[in-house]
């Protein structure tokens, strides 16, 4: 099978131990990019991927952002699904009225990222993604979005494990029918609309280019990559991938810290 398009997750898959692109990864993607489109697929916002696209010399390529909630072609949205404002309100109200104390909430829409304070959680995200947040109370963001009936492409909740566990139970009980609640750590919840996934995001893009899933190759490591890896023509899991991802993958490659994606590109292309 000759693959016509390549999709890759970023964190834990494409980036090395320094959360950067290795020289081998840059060289291999530059080598093939004129023959096969290379598309970054991530839970990140667009701005958090631009510097990576520049290094790879694929700045004009589409992006699948926010786990598929936003798909951009030529910097224009061809698909957007937001978490409804009433759901955003529930999450903000729960946090503000929590007698045990508040946790960190990040609200994202397109290229806007809002946090209430420049706390250690915001600093860590900034360090990981090289983008700075806008400081604004969650309530003020909700009030600003209300007349526009605007929602969030993504919400992240971070804090002490016991606070996050209770929040997760509440959101699962009251909002679970409409949300994906990803927990990669006990101090972290990543929230997206249940209508979207990385798979739905790449399907929108494939339809735009009149390509099929069978013509795609994809790389991933985490729970939110599982559907994508299972559905494409050739799904590849890095050695550090979750067992669930490895179980549905067609092939395995080296650890993300050992240039797994680049080494597989060398082998296949």
Task: Provide an overview of this structure.
The protein is of the alpha/beta class. The chain has 10 helices and 14 strands. An 8-stranded mixed sheet has the order 5-4-3-2-1-12-13-14. Strands 8-7-6-9-11-10 form a 6-stranded mixed sheet, covered by helices on one side. Strand 7 (112-115), helix 4 (120-129) and strand 8 form a beta-alpha-beta unit. The mean pLDDT is 96.
What features would you highlight for this structure?
single chain, 269 residues, 14 strands, 10 helices, 36% helix, 6-stranded mixed sheet, globular, alpha/beta, 8-stranded mixed sheet
Secondary structure topology:
Layout lengths: L4 E4 L14 H10 L5 E4 L5 H10 L6 E3 L4 E4 L2 E5 L4 H12 L7 E6 L2 E4 L4 H10 L4 E2 L2 H8 L8 E5 L2 H15 L3 E4 L5 E6 L4 H12 L6 E5 L5 H6 L2 E5 L4 H6 L2 E3 L6 H9 L1
Parallel strand pairs: 1-2, 1-12, 2-3, 7-8, 12-13, 13-14
Antiparallel strand pairs: 3-4, 4-5, 6-7, 6-9, 9-11, 10-11
Helix pairs in contact: 1-10, 3-5
Strand runs, count: 14
- What is the average per-residue confidence, as pLDDT, rounded to a whole number? 96
Structural class: alpha/beta
Low-confidence stretches at least 5 residues in length (pLDDT < 50)? none
Largest sheet: 8 strands, mixed
| N-to-C span | 11 Å
Number of alpha- plus pi-helical segments = 10
Envelope shape: globular
Strand fraction band? 15-25%
Q: Tell me the Rg in angstroms.
A: 18 Å
């Amino acid at each position: 099978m000759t693959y016509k398009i390549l999709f890759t997750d970023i964190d834990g898959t494409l980036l090395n131990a320094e959360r950067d692109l290795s020289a081998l990864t840059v060289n291999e993607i530059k080598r093939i990019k004129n023959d096969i489109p290379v598309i970054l697929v991530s839970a990140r916002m667009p701005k958090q991927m631009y510097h990576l696209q520049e290094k790879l010399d694929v700045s004009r390529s589409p992006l699948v952002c926010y786990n598929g909630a936003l798909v951009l072609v030529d910097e224009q949205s061809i698909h957007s699904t937001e978490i409804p404002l009433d759901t955003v309100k529930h999450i903000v109200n729960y946090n503000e009225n929590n007698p045990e104390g508040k946790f960190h909430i990040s609200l994202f829409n397109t290229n806007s990222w809002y946090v209430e304070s420049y706390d250690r959680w915001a600093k860590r995200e900034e360090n990981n993604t090289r983008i700075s947040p806008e400081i604004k109370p969650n309530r003020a963001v909700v009030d600003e979005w209300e007349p526009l009936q605007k929602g969030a492409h993504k919400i992240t909740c971070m804090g002490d494990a016991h606070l996050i566990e209770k929040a997760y139970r509440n959101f699962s009980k009251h909002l679970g029918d409409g949300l994906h609640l990803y927990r990669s750590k006990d101090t972290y919840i990543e929230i997206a609309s249940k209508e979207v996934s990385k798979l739905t995001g790449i399907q929108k893009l494939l339809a735009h280019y009149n390509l099929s899933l069978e013509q795609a190759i994809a790389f991933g490591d985490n729970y939110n990559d599982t559907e994508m890896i299972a559905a494409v023509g050739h799904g590849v899991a890095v050695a550090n991938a979750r067992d669930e991802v490895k179980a549905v993958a067609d092939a395995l490659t080296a650890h993300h810290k050992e240039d797994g994606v680049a080494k597989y590109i060398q082998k296949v292309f």
